[in-house]
Amino acid sequence: MTTASAKNKDFVLSIGADEAIDYHSQKFEEVLSDIDFVLDTQGGKVLENSVKVLKNGGTVITTVAPDVSEEVKALAEKENKTIANILVHSSAEDMYTLKGMLESGAIKPNIYKTFAFEAMADAHREVEKGRTVGKVIVTL
Q1: Tell me, what DSSP letter sits at residue 119?
Q2: Which residues contact 110 (CB under 8 A, 6 or more apart)?
Q3: CB-based burial of residue 18 (10 Å sphere; 0-12 exposed, 13-18 middle, 19+ buried)?
């Protein structure tokens, strides 16, 4: 299960989501409950609402700084819910693992758009729009 705009529903279903909640027309916190695990990439109110839909003993991992209210922290503690933060740190070993997975077809990237190195500024502007679906690639 994931959230996505209606425009991206088919995309998220094609990469493995069983169901997609349109965040423009539905509030996931009013639709979901008793969730085991949430991966939060937004933070703020989305993170707080993610904690609220977890079942007792559930976990939310956020990729942004966990800035939650004292009320939500108390709710999480009371219901044995875990709020954790992860940050990505690349390593050569991880890069070689990903390389192998890409070469074998175990993972397939969704490439949104490719830019020449000389158009790096255009690539940055594209990403800053916040509307890409997949990865923006810069080639040499």
Answers
A1: G
A2: 11, 15, 133, 134, 135
A3: exposed
